[in-house]
Specification:
single chain, alpha/beta, Rossmann fold, globular
């Protein structure tokens, strides 16, 4: 079956370079005490998950798994050996399958009740096959929780640097989920407050928005943390840098 739209010829990076960039990024996220984005995004998406068998696809440094394991049975999926090793060095108690989502099968894991794909689907070339395989290892009625970058016109330096294959629209994300047996339960935009700065940086100034400030304590951090906690996570704005979707498995999807 067809994949959702891919930005052909815009990767501009080798797998090894992408691995190095993502490893550095994951190390930063490993110290997310001051990271307003990660802290509030995870709080919004997983705070109500309790007593479930959860699979985190693209588990990176293991931050999400460590939060989830307090109330749930968890397993991770990470195709990048650098990131998997980074995770296990810090979290030897975690179970991390070394595998691409495109190669996932029910011999590795099954009966998953909740699958999380946080800032992951845009990194997978064949997102259709990845979601099809995630569907196969889930219980019927299971839930998938996804966060992705949106708006194709925002494609820029950051997407290339981090190895993205696409940015999503509401339509393209809905289509690839429904074709793979997931019913849309909820879809919303998120990170409205940083949309304009991102547009100015990527489109007008032609440079990547400096994300290192996310990991350092500052007055701006405190203000943004308050905004996301009190406003962004409680109001569904009609635009934002990201799309969040909750899907429910209702079938095995198309053949």
């Amino acid at each position: 079956m067809e994949k959702s739209e891919i930005k052909i010829g815009k990767m501009g990076m080798t797998e090894s370079k992408g691995s190095v960039v993502m490893t550095k990024h994951s190390k930063n996220l490993g110290e997310y005490e001051y990271d307003f984005r990660t802290r509030n995004l995870l709080d919004l998406l997983i705070s109500d998950i309790n007593g479930k068998y959860v699979m985190d696809v693209g588990s990176g440094a293991g931050n999400l798994l460590n939060m989830l394991r307090k109330k749930n049975k968890v397993i991770g999926l990470e195709p990048d050996s650098r990131l998997r090793n980074l995770c296990l060095e810090k979290n030897p108690h975690l179970n991390i399958i070394h595998c691409k989502a495109e190669d996932l099968n029910s011999d590795m894991v099954n009966d998953i009740e909740v699958a999380t794909m946080i800032d992951v689907l845009e990194h997978i070339e064949d997102d259709y096959k990845a979601l099809k395989n995630v569907n196969k290892v889930m219980q019927k009625g299971g839930v998938v929780i996804i966060n992705v970058p949106c708006y194709e016109f925002l494609w820029g330096k950051k997407d290339i640097k981090y190895g993205h294959f696409r940015r999503y629209t509401r339509k393209s994300l809905k289509n690839v989920l429904e074709k793979n047996g997931f019913e849309i339960v909820k879809m919303r935009y998120w990170n409205m407050i940083l949309l304009l700065p991102y547009i100015i940086s990527e489109k007008l100034l032609n440079k990547e928005l400096d994300s290192d400030k996310r990991y350092k304590p500052s007055l701006l951090q405190n203000v943004l943390n308050w905004w996301f906690k009190k406003i962004e996570n409680n109001i569904n704005f009609c635009f934002g840098l990201n799309l969040i979707v909750v899907g429910k498995k209702v079938s095995n999807g198309e053949d």
